[in-house]
Amino acid sequence: MIEVLQAAREVQDFLEQREWSFAFIGGIAVNRWGRARMTNDADLCLFTDFGNEASFVDALLEKFTPRRADAKEFALLNRVVLLTSKKGFGVDISLGAFNFERSAIMRSSLFRFHEGVELLTVSAEDLVVFKAFAGRPQDWFDVEGIFNRQLASLNMNLIRQELAPLCELKESPETLDQLERLWQSCQDE
């Protein structure tokens, strides 16, 4: 895990040098707020807004090795840049443009994972929103771990406020229902 954290730090250093707005959102952030788990990549959100993505993608592809031959086209179409760090770890950089992503990055904070490795991660609430919105089985498992570990301190009103418009956009009201069931289940334990 330390090597993944060091790879994440390498990416963070690059983004900080450019004064770009970003925060880690995947398994690294889950290790801060939820159940400790292994991760072999670094996931983060980089705020690019709409229409400015190409310049960010170009700079990232100059610095890091792409994982696809069509990396730029893929990134611009799917809003995610798939890279490999110098030590060979996957780095998935989501190109953020929604108000929620901007707010999540603004609410992020540094966390010391290891000696010499402090990383900027989203808040527990924002991580729940990212994970619930993605909605894969691993994401819901991660949400449950965050609920169990942060139960007393989570701001569920903020989570609901941020997730509701995203679910409307995605046309997935069932995501909110699933979130509420999981929240209630964790409180009942």
Which CATH architecture of the largest domain is right? 2-Layer Sandwich
SSE ordering? HEHEHEHEEHEEHHHH
Helix content estimate? 55-70%
Question: Termini separation (Å)?
Answer: 30 Å
Instruction: Compute the CA-based radius of gyration.
Output: 16 Å
User: What's the number of domains?
Assistant: 2
Text of the CATH class of the largest domain = Alpha Beta
CATH fold topology of the largest domain:
Beta Polymerase, domain 2
Quaternary: single chain
Kindly report the spatial arrangement of strands forming the biggest sheet.
Answer: 1-2-5-4-3
Secondary structure class reads alpha+beta
Provide the low-confidence segments as ranges.
none
The H-level CATH homologous superfamily of the largest domain, spelled out, is Beta Polymerase, domain 2
Inertia-based shape = globular
Proportion of residues in extended strands: 15-25%
For the sheet with most strands, the description reads: 5 strands, mixed
Mean pLDDT: 94
Query: How many E-type strands?
Result: 7
Count of helical regions: 9
Question: How would you describe the overall organization of this protein?
Answer:
By secondary structure, this protein is α+β, with helices and mostly antiparallel strands. It has two domains: 1-122, Beta Polymerase, domain 2; 124-189. It has nine helices and seven strands. The strands form two sheets. Strands 1-2-5-4-3 form a five-stranded mixed beta sheet, sandwiched between helices. The two termini are 30 Å apart. The model has no long low-confidence stretch (mean pLDDT 94).
